[in-house]
Design brief:
single chain, mainly beta, Neuraminidase, five-stranded antiparallel beta sheet, Glc/Sorbosone_DH, 6-blade_b-propeller_TolB-like, signal
Length: about 425
């Protein structure tokens, strides 16, 4: 195993960990070699930032835009930051998208090409599980997120999101299956069925989202993208469209949960929880059981939100940042009556993917903080909320010199980060612990 210590107290140092190089085709929010890439090049020059100063020191893409309130962007670093040791637990894996811990400590991972694999606690990868249905893996598509059913220990059921090929294009869908594993790292997924489809379909290969999060009541939140292109991205504002939404569904039926905000509104899709989103690839519950998300913005304007029932989060009518061309998005406005402000935004972007609430003993200073994967910042972004749990008090960065696609907290309290190298179609899994 390769091990490296990152000294994060009082300054941010470059990791220099050669596990999966940052994708270098210009800008990289969620990239593949055949598409317009997102975000912008990894920022440099953040070294030497002192506690109490913002970790982001690079100029904004939209310098004339002003935050709606002081805590909305460029939060300071905390005074105390841990020393982090990083080891490569597994490498030379197929390109991964998500990871979930099984009760026995093994890891269930999804691959972009459309397969499930099981990784042992020692980092050994098993063969692809049989029985999986077809996925559309071009561009930003593939087999996306995976979540264990709340009753997994008795049911062995899993839920997954994926880019589904359809006669009239493709779209993000949610499937359900039973996991049947053997003792050799292999096995199968059985009784596979699609329980929910984002509609309408669209013949594109970008902005599928997607993350799956179970609520404390056992409902399933599903985040999706608005498919990027103009049109149809403006459908993020339409309640009769499933583009650019957070859904709340019943995992047993795939239908809307009773009490959803638009269940009784004529013409609206009843599964919608919130709308006006761009491309949601990070989602997690906080310590109080509330849903939080991070979505890819344009060039500048990645957003942290706490999506609430029935609210409109603005895309593409309002946004921070600018288009990839450098031009304004829509009218270049950042606020409008009836549309929500993000709790926090990043300009330059972080390229968010994967998100976990830290709960464990390994990193006491991270307790109840959000850990967010950075595709552009090539590391972890640690977001500390204030005492009220409503605004960002501190932000710190853990450089890993790799695009981070997903992040999970292990049963041992260590942090596990999934890297990706789109050029080589490979991934690694890193294990982060506190340097003693």
């Amino acid at each position: 195993m390769k091990t490296l210590t990152l000294l994060l107290t009082g300054t941010v140092l470059s990791a220099g960990l050669a596990v999966a190089p940052a994708y270098s085709q210009g800008s990289t929010g969620d990239a593949s070699p055949v598409e317009q890439v997102e975000g912008q090049p990894p920022a440099e020059g953040n070294e030497g930032v002192q506690a109490g100063e913002p970790v982001e020191t690079q100029p904004a893409n939209a310098p004339d835009q002003q935050p709606a309130f002081p805590e909305q962007t460029r939060a300071p670093q905390p005074a105390d930051m841990p020393e982090v040791a990083v080891e490569t637990l597994a490498e030379d894996l197929p390109q991964l998208w998500a990871m979930e811990f099984l009760p026995d400590g093994r890891m269930l991972v999804t691959t972009k090409e459309g397969a499930f694999h099981v990784i042992s606690a020692e980092g050994e990868a098993g063969t692809a599980l049989s029985g999986m249905i077809e996925v559309a893996s071009a561009g930003q598509g593939g087999l996306l997120d995976v979540a264990l059913a709340p009753d997994f220990e008795t049911s062995n059921r899993i839920f997954f999101s994926f880019a589904e090929p359809r006669d009239d294009g493709n779209g993000t869908s949610v499937g359900r299956a039973t996991l049947n594993l053997d003792d050799n790292g292999g096995g199968s997924v059985e009784d596979v069925e699609v329980i929910f489809q984002q509609m309408p379909s669209y013949d594109g290969d970008k902005h599928f989202g997607s993350r799956l999060v179970f609520s404390p009541d056992g409902d399933l939140y599903v985040t999706v993208g608005e498919r990027s292109d103009d049109p149809p991205r403006d459908q993020a504002q339409d309640l009769d469209s499933g583009l650019g939404k957070v859904f709340r569904i019943n995992p047993e039926t795939g239908e809307a949960v009773d009490g959803n905000p638009f269940a009784d509104e004529d013409g609206a899709q009843p599964e919608i929880w919130s709308y006006g989103h761009r491309n949601l690839q990070s989602a997690a519950l906080d310590a109080e059981g509330r849903l939080w998300t991070v979505e890819h913005g344009p060039r500048g304007g990645d957003e942290l939100n706490m999506p609430e029932a029935g609210l409109n989060y603005g895309w593409p009518v309002i946004t921070y940042g600018v288009a990839y061309s450098g031009e304004q998005v829509e009218g270049g406005i950042t606020s409008q009556e009836g549309m929500e402000q993000p709790v926090y935004y990043w300009d330059p972007v972080i390229g968010p993917s994967g998100m976990a609430l830290y709960e464990g003993e390994e990193f006491p200073s991270w307790q109840d903080a959000f850990l967010i994967g950075g595709l552009v910042t090539t590391g972890l972004v640690v977001v500390h909320l204030d005492e009220a749990g409503e605004q960002v008090a501190f932000e710190e960065r853990v450089p890993l010199d790799a695009r981070i696609r997903d992040v999970r907290v292990g049963p041992d309290g260590a942090v596990y980060a999934v890297t990706e190298d789109p050029d080589a179609d490979t991934s690694a899994i890193l294990r982060l612990t506190r340097e003693q």
